[in-house]
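Today's session is about reading a structure prediction critically. Students often jump straight to the picture, but the first step is always the sequence itself: look for stretches that repeat, for charged clusters, for runs of hydrophobic residues. Only then move on to the predicted structure, which in these notes is written as discrete structure tokens rather than atom positions. Here is the chain we will use throughout the hour.
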Amino acid sequence: MTRAFLFDIDGTLVDSAAAIERAWREVTGEFGVSAEAVLRACHGRRDVEVVEEFFEPGVRNQVLGRIAALDMGSAAVASAVPGAVDVLGALADGQWAAVTSGPRELMTARLRAAGLPVPEVLVTAEDVQNGKPDPEGFLLAARTLGYRPSDCVVVEDSPAGVAAGRAAGATVVGITTTHLAADLVDADLVVGDLTRLPEVLADFFAGRGR
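Below is the predicted structure for this chain, in token form.
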């Protein structure tokens, strides 16, 4: 059976954790909000939803502007997660998509800086009404590729992303680049990075008789 792959970007295909942390620490310091609280909650979620949770209404637009500027300023130093180049290189163009909580301009810049292809199907923060853990983005990507969600493999590094993949009805792989395996227990299987993904998935589906 041919399966489609739906990848998150930050932390899954691209190592951007340090840049994300620096940006949020700078902004939370400017606006008097707990950096640790924001960093515990921000991974895998759209900036607008994080800002609505932690910042007062009167400063939210300013915060979003600062985060966007800081993120774009560091986009050029993004690098690929181990195994990402090989995994994506083995997939046909219409066999995979990226589903991200980030904005299109930033995600495209990070992929290019990391030397990774920009997929034909790229679902970003601007394309959905509800961000992760809602499954909307993954359902849209599967539909656009022409696959049933049950024939898709979601690869995610955050609890919110894992929850979204599960809610979509896909097989979910958690990757421990950002969170501990204990934080990704709702995934069907967990790997350290993408280098062993094909082997691990082959064993997983063989064991299920699929």
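Discussion point for the tutorial: The longest strand covers residues 152-156.
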